[in-house]
Amino acid sequence: MRLLPLAIGLGALLVAPAAAQYYEYHFGRNKVQYERFDWHVLQTEHFDIYYYPEMQTLAEHGAYFAEEAYRVLQQRFNYSLPRRTPLIFYAAPYHFQQTNTTPGFIPEGVGGFFELIKGRVVLPANGNLYRFRRVIWHELVHVFTFHRAFQVLRDHRVPPDRFLPLWFTEGLAEYWSGPPDDQHEMILRDALYANYLVPLENMYRIYGTFLMYKEGEALCHFIAETYGEEKLLELIEQFWIDRDFRRVLEHVLGEDFYAISDRWERWLKRRYLPDLPNQSLPSLAAHTVVARGFSTKPVVYRRQDGRQMVYYLGNEGAYTHLYALPVDSAYDPLGAPRVLIRIGRDERFESINLLEDRMDVSRQGLLAFTTRSGGSDVLHLYDLEHEDLVATYRFDRLVAIYSPSWSPSGRQLAFSAIDEGGWIDLYVFTPETGQLERLTRDLYDERDPAWSPDGRSLAFASDRTAWGDRYAMNLFLYRFDTGQIHQLTQGLRRDQEPRWSPDGRYVVFSSAVKGENGRFGPRNIWAVEAVPSLPAPPVATLHPETVPSPPLRRLYRLTNLATAAFDPVWTPDGHLLFSTFEHYRFAIRQLPDIAQYLEKPYQRTSIALLGSDPAWQPGRLSAESSVRRRPYRRRYSLDVAYGGISISQSALWGTSGGAALAFSDLLGDDRWYLMVFHAGQSSGDLLKGLNLAVSRIQLHRRTDVGYGLYRFAGLRYDLTDPDAAAEYPLLWEELIGTYGALSYPISTFRRLELNTALAWSDKRVAIRGIERQALLLSNALSLVHDNALYGLNGPVDGWRANLTIGYTTDLRYANVNYYTLSLDVRHYLRLLRNVTLASWGMLRINEGREARLWFLGGSWDLRGFPLFDVRGSKLWFTSHELRFPILEAPSLYIPILAPFGIANLRGALFFDAAHVWNNDYAQRQPQLYAGETLGAVGLGFRLNLFGGLVLRYDIGYRYREGFRYRERSFRQFFFGWDF
């Protein structure tokens, strides 16, 4: 949460001036600016590259990739971009998540985005230059697509009232950014085998999902292969002819839309189904250990009391936790898994990488794992015997840490980490001394280190291979005695996640191999001999004594799966544990007696290695390149502008009109808001009815800073003013002042807010003959906590709270003097996966001279009573809801509902109670519903449309007199998230 709502909320001052007089708060997690980036600009022929000095080398590689992409895409689109494109680079995903170019939170796994208003491309590196290059290409395809499409609309004089479908734009960006990777192949295989492939006509049902990206990519590949690659560009050039893209497809491809869809499905089946009879699904080929939710990264440890445990990362709802599962000697579960460490609830364990990170356990029972904490990863050591966190380590200049591995002695840890410059390398850490040693320092991606049982070497995966520019990774050995690196596997493969056999003879790993058809095959579990054991065949030569015979290593494919396997672990008792992907979820499975698979593998090959192959050399702008480098200077441009005018039929309100403008710099760190509004009864009221507000929000520091000036004047219908008549709270007020605000995020979940305002107030309540002037000083301090987890209709787990204290006084006449106390606590207990008990308690007090009134009523809080009708300077309120599903994904059961965007239908049993008062707790004020306890009981229905709009319908009874009197039934229809 940032200060942006404060600036936007200035518009509310037209109807409720002096926001500091009655503090309005916001929940939400915090987007924390942990780093103070010193931005610079590298100007190439077509791009302005924004970077910070720590990542200059990486930025130069990115600039080279961008210009490389421009030359190719310029020809593919037959189009040149009309202006220079800004590219904003971040060295690591955690830096990228701090960007202010978008006010929203960026989930983990997002590789970048193209923002339309300023035409910015914003993306991070993740330690892999091939992926960095591919993301740059992907986003630049979006840039070309956007400009080319709107050029087409302008050329044909068609208003810009349509967009290309997301499946096409994302699919095209994937297709033209590089060949399909192993994840693409894995998803499509599984979608076909498990029968969840979504036909072209129903693609909107998976809008924005990873499956949509992969299906869109396959569709573009199908169109290029079947109809010709030029048809992809023609679809963009012809999309002006109809708002319905199905008609565009028919026009360009010359076939009926449903015939195209059927032909695409047949094309997919011809690619993948012939392989299925020779392969096995993971659920049939291996014994299941954990199949609940998404479960990955298993490790095994036998406790001192003899119990054998499997520890793993699992996601059974939306939180990812670390679980413990007792198993027997055959690795069959002996009970239900138990949450060992909860992730995503506090700043120590903000998040954990479910797919890219691994854990390891030492012989002494110390579990090493990493989580995000603040602006970087930290390394945790957890005692499995005592189930206690014993140490947490943070390393300066290391942003992300992956896959810690214990040495055989249990005294050192190896891991890979991304530094501030964006490079990922191998490190060794000694907890006893705190010493951190960097083993490698290069531009290659090095991951998943695994310490050999004899302690002499590390096995790891890297793209430092001759095939690294084609998305390949091979296994390597780092020798501690010499500091040299030796290649362990080779070829167009994705070899990852190595682990050693207990005797040190083999390294087991997962791998997807690129076949002769140019596509990656299923990811399987392989093993390679750590020490060559085969002599090479003789080499025919005139002088054989001068030609050494290279040693040979055997490779064994231990599984023959149809989809994918990951995270292999060779257990001390000879089993193989690993995670598998099937039916769009991850499960943990095991194979007993791995020795038999080495004797009779599904595939056995041998490789000869004289040394490491020459590694690929990614392109980079040379030092002599004709580029300009300069410090970043802020330049502001318009983000949003809107205006309007209204003419009231009543002479009381007259005519009103206004406009609002928002400006920001390219990085989004500095934002200006301008609002001008006029309300008056006659043309002579120009100055009297002029309303103006100017505010500035600065977001580039950890503490967000906001300040501004405003002048508001006019008639107001103010239900919260204690001087206004209860039946008809109309008054006139002029307010001239300034405000300031600070928001300091303690962590992602907690923040402190300080707000202050100084304003001259001239108020007149004609109905009651009141005229009051005051120089108002208002201050408020808030502590906000929010770790709530959202579902489609609102929070489903966690809790949130806001404690606010404030004080408002009249510095000149002492006409106003009151304090404010507000406490709001909301708790969400997930009873079952789709059932939540939500509880809300609130206490609000304004006490003193001219203390403003709080209000309740309507569908947001006290149901059954009209909005704003329950008012008082003091109140307590509580609400409880049992939220449960009625129909999830109804379009799966009733397809006719799909075009209406109905995402789910849920119900809620609710109970509300409240009491407001002004002077004495029991003093009745019937026109305000004050002095008595009110309540409501009933049943609610929630309908989510298109994943973002929630319609609410409540029916029930409302109660008076402390629930002693049931007054009447009610029905309420509204929209908005659950509390």
Under CATH, the topology of the largest domain is which?
Neuraminidase
Q: How much helical structure, as a percent, in the residues?
A: 10-25%
Low-confidence stretches: 5-23, 538-544, 647-654
| CATH H-level superfamily of the largest domain | TolB, C-terminal domain
**Gross morphology:** globular
Question: How many domains, in number, for the residues?
Answer: 4
Report the top-level CATH class of the largest domain. Answer: Mainly Beta
Arithmetic mean pLDDT: 90
Written overview of the protein:
The chain has 979 residues and is mainly beta. The protein folds into four domains: 4-27 and 661-892 and 912-929, Porin (Beta Barrel), CATH 2.40.160; 40-160, Collagenase ColT, N-terminal domain (Glutaredoxin, 3-Layer(aba) Sandwich); 162-278, no CATH class; 287-539 and 546-608, Neuraminidase. Helix content is 14%, strand content 42%. The chain has twelve helices and 50 strands. The strands form nine sheets. It has a 17-stranded antiparallel β-sheet that branches. The protein has a six-stranded mixed β-sheet with strand order 4-5-3-2-1-31. Strands 23-24-25-26-30 form a five-stranded antiparallel β-sheet, with no helix packed on it. The longest helix has 27 residues, at 129-155. The relative contact order is 0.09.
